[in-house]
Structure formats: structure tokens, C-alpha cells
Specification:
about 500 residues, four-stranded antiparallel beta sheet, globular, binds calcium ion
Length: about 500
């Protein structure tokens, strides 16, 4: 049975409920979502970024992670099973997503470059909505911290201060900026408290709890404008909200840790992918900066489990904050006019390959969660089509009936939302730079992940990686050099040369 048929049967089974509850009759929902006509109108946009969130949530089929609020959102919209970020680290992925352009166009490859340094006149996603009559507001981490863009918002961007740790001893460590035993000032300046914390405190003791409260207050302030009786007084909003967890350190209230039994957490696949070049890997220094993590070598089994436990707890914590904001959206009766999109800015290695953090081209780092709920769109639909973060800008613009600015490098996913099984992109593209002018270009096709490491001075392909993710979902073996794959590698090389333009849906 194909997906469309399944969706139809699911919709049909709701018929009796609809008749009793007064929600739109299923026949209406069906015709609206299947006939290729999601209504384009100036809907509000609640745009939720989650820092370092892997596509591991209940709604993505994870057996342990508890994410009831995001799961409920997925039931009210479209879950994209195979979305890819364009560069697996905060600053560049956000710069790309929020301008609708790829890193080779934004030239933002690091955590220091501001989009206005490289593209002074670019119109960001939020700015595009602002320019089209929206009230644009930003709370928390949307662009990378310290690289926010005031031109994107109608009022100054805000972020709650403090709240990284709650326990006194950890706050002290953080203030000292010192990993015990660090000697040079350079080292000391980079060091922090521990990688995890479970404190018996309220949600608001941490940043994301404060952030949810800020967002709730904003919604209360924005609602009267949206619901004004006179049309001339009405103004839709674009509210960007950037949660910080589950980014390191994995700190969250104890009650979220209590949702998990640490002893039942399976240990991750420990081996590095066979025959992968060294350039593909990192030494995960981001995690090593924390006071309880070894400077060299892997974490032991106990620390590995603790870190995974802390990550899951942080996901559940952020999920709960998302739930509070969505509950307020409902309470204010705004949901019927509001698009909600939630995305995690890149993947994360949670001990797989005996590695941690992001900063690579592996599937684990480039594969991201994305859920989009449109009040006029399909509900509880999933698609396996390959999609990219650069597609968000044109999609939200399309759903709200805004013109598409020139120079966007993604495509509107609205046709896909209307027909989740249709043919779509042939590939999704990511990249990651390495020292000495090396750039790793990576491409996800329906079946494979193919990566070329290119010396940008000579344009020479120095290393290749090929993973058959159909037969080897964890990408444990690089099979690029195998004789029998010669033709396949040549084909993928050609496809990569064609790039994103040639991979677009027809
Ligand atoms: Ca991030």
C-alpha cells in the first residue's frame, strides 16, 4: 500500500471523530491536502531551532527518547525523515539555512564570520518576512551566538542570560574558566565545568526554561495584533525561538534525567568506519574542554552512558519547553493561523565510532530532524524524500504567499507536503572544510553517502568515501576503493560535479 493510500485510510478513520468534534470534515482535509492546494496566506510563523538535536525523537522511531510534545507536533504536520544540513556545525548551518544559500555562497564556514561580513545586502529569512509586513522577533540562538543580525528583526534580538549550570560548584568552575590541572592561560580560557549536570531545580533555573517563558510572554503580546478586529490593525508575526539544549553541557533538571534508566542505554557502535581517511574524523575537542572528560583517548563505559543519558535528558527538557510554547499558542487560539517548524541545526555523534560531537560529513552529523506543521496542510504525514535546510526559506515563503527573492539555493517543499511520495531531489549536499585548503564535499543519494575531499588549490580529489547506507546504515565501511564500485564511484563523481542544481526535482 502506498503512502497516499495509507494517509487516506488514516484520514478516513478519523471521519467519525470529525463529525462529533466539529473539526473540518475529512473529505475537506483530503481534498485540500491531496489536490495540491495548501492554502497560501499570511500565516504566522513560529520558527523553532534546537541546538545539536539528532533526528532521534519518539516520532523518528527512537526506542528510548521521550519527546511527547515534538511527537504531537509531528502528528499535526509533516515529518521529514531525511533532511540534511549543509555544514555540520552551528554557525555555518544557521547562516546557510537563514539565508537560503549554501556555504560556498555564504562563505560562512566557521564560528566567527558574520553573514554581513560576506554578504552585506543579503535578505535573511526573518528579514524577508519583516519586509513583507510581518512583525519579526528573535529569541535565543537563531544565528550563531554573537553573530545575530539586527536587520532581521522588528525589535532587538533577546536571549536570557546565565543558566548554563545551576549547581554552585559547577557555576564556580565555569567562572574560573578552568579545567582542573590546566596550566596555560590559553587552555584555561577554553576550559569549563563538567559535561553534564542533573540539578533538582525548576526548568527556569536553566536557559531553555527562561527562553520558553520569554516566548510565552511574546506570544501574549503578539496575539492581539494578529487577532485585531480591523484589518488595517492586523499584523502576522514571525517568531524565531532558538533553544540551546541538547547542546553541551548536558545540563537539565533532575526530573528529565529520571525519565531514563541509565543501565538500559545501549552502548554505541565503537569502531571507526573501515578504510575511511583520517581527514574525515575529528578529535572532538569540543567535548574534551569539559572538566570531567579525558584530554586524550575515549570516554570509559560509565562516562559514555552518563553522556548519552545526559543528552537524552536534555532532549526531553527542551521538548518540555517546546510543549509549553505550543500550549500557549493553543491557549491563545493562534494555532489555526500559525505555521510551526522545528529543526535541529545538525546531527551529533553520541559515542558512535568512539567519537563525539559534530564537525564531519558523516551521515550521523549531517542528518537532521525537521517537522513542519501548517494549519492548512496535511497532518501526521511523513516523507522519505531527500530535503535540505536551504529548502526552508523558499518553503515558508511559499506557504505564506510571499514572493521568492532571487538567489535562493533550495526549493519550496510545498509540492512534497502535498504529495509526500512524489519524486523529489536526487541528492542532498553538505560540506566541511579542513585545514590546508581542504574541503570535503558530501552527497546523500537515496542509497549512498559519497564524499570527496578536495585540495582547493589544485582541485585534486585527495580522498573519497562511499557508504552503502541501505546495507550498512551506520556507515561502518568506506567502500569507495573497492574494484567492483569503480563505475558507481565514477557515476557519483559526475553527479557531484552537477551539484545541487542538477539534483533538483523535475
Ligand atoms: Ca549546533
Amino acid at each position: 500500500m502506498n503512502q497516499a493510500r495509507r494517509d487516506f485510510l488514516r484520514a478516513a478513520s478519523l471521519l467519525s471523530v470529525a463529525a462529533l468534534s466539529g473539526i473540518p470534515a475529512v473529505s475537506d482535509v483530503f481534498s485540500r491536502t491531496r489536490a495540491g492546494s495548501i492554502a497560501r496566506r499570511k500565516k504566522n510563523v513560529l520558527f523553532i531551532a534546537v541546538d545539536d538535536l539528532r533526528p532521534e525523537l519518539g516520532c523518528y522511531g527512537h526506542p528510548m527518547v521521550k519527546s511527547p510534545n515534538i511527537d504531537a507536533l509531528a502528528k499535526s504536520g509533516v515529518l521529514f525523515e531525511r533532511t540534511y544540513c549543509q555544514q555540520a556545525v552551528c554557525g555555518p548551518t544557521r547562516a546557510s539555512l537563514l539565508t537560503g544559500k549554501r556555504p560556498d555562497t555564504t562563505k560562512v564556514y566557521d564560528l566567527k564570520t558574520h553573514i554581513r561580513d560576506t554578504m552585506p545586502n543579503v535578505v535573511t529569512l526573518q528579514q524577508h518576512f519583516k519586509n513583507n509586513g510581518y512583525f519579526s522577533e528573535g529569541i535565543g540562538k537563531l544565528f550563531h551566538s554573537g553573530l545575530e543580525d539586527e536587520a532581521s528583526y522588528s525589535i532587538p534580538h533577546r536571549s536570557p542570560s546565565g543558566g548554563i549550570y545551576a549547581l554552585e560548584e559547577n557555576l564556580k568552575l565555569q567562572e574560573q574558566g578552568g579545567k582542573p590541572g590546566s596550566e596555560t592561560s590559553e587552555e584555561a580560557g577554553k576550559m569549563r565545568g563538567p559535561a553534564t549536570e542533573a540539578a533538582d531545580v525548576s526548568d527556569e533555573a536553566y536557559q531553555d526554561g527562561k527562553m520558553a517563558q520569554m516566548a510565552i510572554e511574546s506570544l501574549r503580546r503578539l496575539a492581539p495584533k494578529v487577532q485585531a478586529k480591523n484589518e488595517k490593525d492586523r499584523q502576522p508575526f514571525f517568531l524565531g525561538l532558538g533553544f540551546r539544549k541538547p547542546h553541551l553541557p548536558f545540563t537539565s533538571p533532575k526530573k528529565y534525567w529520571d525519565l531514563y534508566d541509565r543501565s538500559k542505554i545501549p552502548l554505541p557502535y565503537p569502531d571507526k568506519p573501515k578504510n575511511a581517511p583520517d581527514i574525515a574524523f575529528t578529535t572532538w575537542n569540543e567535548l574534551r574542554k569539559y572538566s570531567d572528560i579525558p584530554d586524550v583517548g575515549n570516554c570509559d563505559e560509565a562516562k559514555t552512558r552518563e553522556l548519552i543519558h545526559g543528552y537524552y535528558a536534555a532532549v526531553s527538557f527542551t521538548d518540555a519547553q517546546v510543549g509549553k510554547v505550543l500550549a500557549e499558542l493553543d491557549r491563545l487560539d493562534l494555532r489555526k493561523d500559525t505555521i510551526v517548524i522545528i529543526w535541529g541545526d545538525h546531527g551529533w555523534k553520541l559515542g558512535e565510532y568512539s567519537m563525539w560531537c559534530k564537525h564531519t560529513n558523516f551521515e550521523l552529523d549531517t542528518h537532521v530532524p525537521m517537522i513542519l506543521s501548517d494549519p492548512d496542510g496535511p497532518k501526521g504525514v511523513r516523507t522519505r524524500a531527500l530535503t535540505e535546510f536551504v529548502d526552508i526559506y523558499p518553503t515558508l515563503s511559499d506557504l505564506c504567499g510571499l514572493p521568492l527573492p532571487e538567489g535562493l539555493e533550495g526549493v519550496s517543499m510545498v509540492p512534497l507536503m502535498e504529495d509526500p511520495d512524489r519524486a523529489w531531489k536526487k541528492a542532498a549536499f553538505s560540506q566541511y572544510p579542513r585545514p590546508k585548503n581542504m574541503m570535503g564535499y558530501s552527497m546523500r543519494t537515496d542509497r549512498y553517502r559519497y564524499t570527496e575531499w578536495i585540495d582547493q588549490k589544485t582541485n585534486e580529489v585527495k580522498y573519497r568515501e562511499l557508504y552503502d547506507l541501505e546495507n550498512d546504515p551506520l556507515g561502518t565501511q568506506n567502500i569507495a576503493a573497492r574494484g567492483e564500485n569503480e563505475r558507481l564511484v565514477a557515476e557519483l563523481h559526475e553527479m557531484m560535479k552537477g551539484g545541487w542544481r542538477k539534483a533538483r526535482p523535475e
